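To close the section, here is one more complete example, presented without commentary so you can practise reading it yourself. The ligand is protoporphyrin IX containing FE.
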Amino acid sequence: MNNHQIALVKETFGLVATIPAETVGDLFYNRLFEITPEIRPMFERTSLPEQSRKLISMLAYVVGKLDNLSSIIDEVAKLAQRHVKYGVEPRHYQPVGEALLWTLEKGLGDHWNEDVKEAWTRCYSTLSGAMIQACEEISVA
Ligand code: HEM
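Output:
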């Protein structure tokens, strides 16, 4: 990701953060469960408002790490390890990314454009790529 893309992700996250978490969560989880129903049981331990707050904190986590992703490889590996315990498999990262992009597009309205899409795509694929790699290393270890 270049600096412009990092700035775009931070700026648009700031806009999404002004929308009530529950609204963003509704968009995201409805879309995710529609495209990948098998993922639903993984999230059934918590209520929707609680999950929605987690979604925003997941985004905040991503955005907060953007400036220096390479320095947090250990942290990402631990996050990936916890995800394996939640039942997450590598193939689940693609639909989650798709639902995330779709949610951002709906939430940002007029602020959504090709540059913003490209920036968020890079952001998610960088982080999910690192998580998938880390859990593949765990499973062969
Ligand atoms: C770049 C990708 C992702 C990031 C940065 C991310 C980040 C997080 C964070 C920070 C948490 C809070 C708990 C913790 O720190 O362990 C969490 C929880 C969770 N994530 Fe992710 N996540 C990602 C992708 C995914 C994917 C692909 C799935 C697949 C369905 C998933 C499913 C879950 C579940 C089930 C929980 C626990 C919810 C609960 O508390 O019941 N995540 N995620």
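Once you have examined the tokens, check your reading against these statements. DSSP finds six helices and no strands in the chain. Residues 39, 42-43, 45-46, 54, 58, 61-62, 79, 82-83, 86, 88, 92-93, 96, 124, 127-128, 131 surround protoporphyrin IX containing FE (CB under 6 Å).
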